[in-house]
């Protein structure tokens, strides 16, 4: 399975945008990029996914590099509730099957 | 809210005892997954069901672990002869399955402590 690399931690100020990077240099042509997040004491929660084009939804935006070897999750205005561990995950062919989580990026949001 | 539910939320047991956890997926979701998460790590896949069929098992799932999903609805995960190394959060997730968007919805987890 293709591997992802994320920074261990990041900090942000409340109401400012946050850009969470993910490197996946061994991604294959059929691998989708998924982002989940895990708030303290909760199970992971789906955020967004994409294949080649940038994606937007009510929670976040996903910017995918042209060569697909990296992507960035964008939270447009961080709130205290966005403090969580964010996981970038690759899956084959759109069907997620079992998700292979790394350690993710722990995002802290300062008021 | 009819999300994924798990029972119990917390379980404390003594080493050598058997424990069983239950997961109720979102109704009509035909896929059900079990993961294990230890402190500071991301969740690790254990096993996966498509309806009542157990289609994949991780090498992490030793012989002491067994999972069932009778009738393709709720699922149980049993750990026999628990060991201290089994202490972890056990997460269940469900999804609709199929090609394309197959978002997994996670339950709150069952935290197991083995003394």
Offer a quick outline of the entry.
The complex is a heterodimer of chains A (111) and B (115). With 111 residues, chain A is mostly beta strands. Helix content of chain A is 0%, strand content 47%.
Notable characteristics:
heterodimer, A: about 110 residues, mainly beta, about 0% helix, globular, B: about 120 residues, 4-stranded antiparallel β-sheet, 11 strands
Question: What does the model show?
Answer:
The complex is a heterodimer of chains A (111) and B (115). Chain A is mostly beta strands and 111 residues long. In chain A, strand 5 and strand 6 form a beta hairpin. Chain A is globular and about 40 Å long. Chain B is mainly beta. Chain B has no helices and eleven strands. In chain B, the strands form two sheets. In chain B, strands 2, 4, 5, 6, 9, 10 and 11 form a seven-stranded mixed beta sheet that branches. In chain B, strands 1-3-8-7 form a four-stranded antiparallel beta sheet, with no helix packed on it. In chain B, strand 4 and strand 5 form a beta hairpin. The termini of chain B are far apart. The model of chain B has no long low-confidence stretch (mean pLDDT 92). Chains A and B meet through strand 4 of A and strand 5, strand 9 and strand 10 of B.
**Rounded to an integer, what's the Rg of chain B over CA atoms?**
13 Å
Quick one: which chains have the greatest interface?
A: A-B, 20 and 28 residues
Q: How would you characterize the largest beta sheet of chain A? A: 5 strands, mixed
The gross shape of chain A turns out to be: globular
Give the amount of beta strand of chain B, in percent: over 45%
Quaternary state of the chains: heterodimer
Q: What average pLDDT do the residues of chain A reach?
A: 91
Tally of strands of chain A = 9
In whole angstroms, how far apart are the ends of chain A? 38 Å
The Rg value of chain A, from CA coordinates, equals 13 Å
N-to-C span of chain B: 34 Å
Question: What is the H/E string of chain A?
Answer: EEEEEEEEE
Sheet with most strands: strand arrangement of chain A: 1-9-8-3-4
Low-confidence stretches of chain B: none
Shape of chain B: globular
The helix/strand order of chain B is EEEEEEEEEEE
Q: What structural category arises from helix and sheet content of chain B?
A: mainly beta
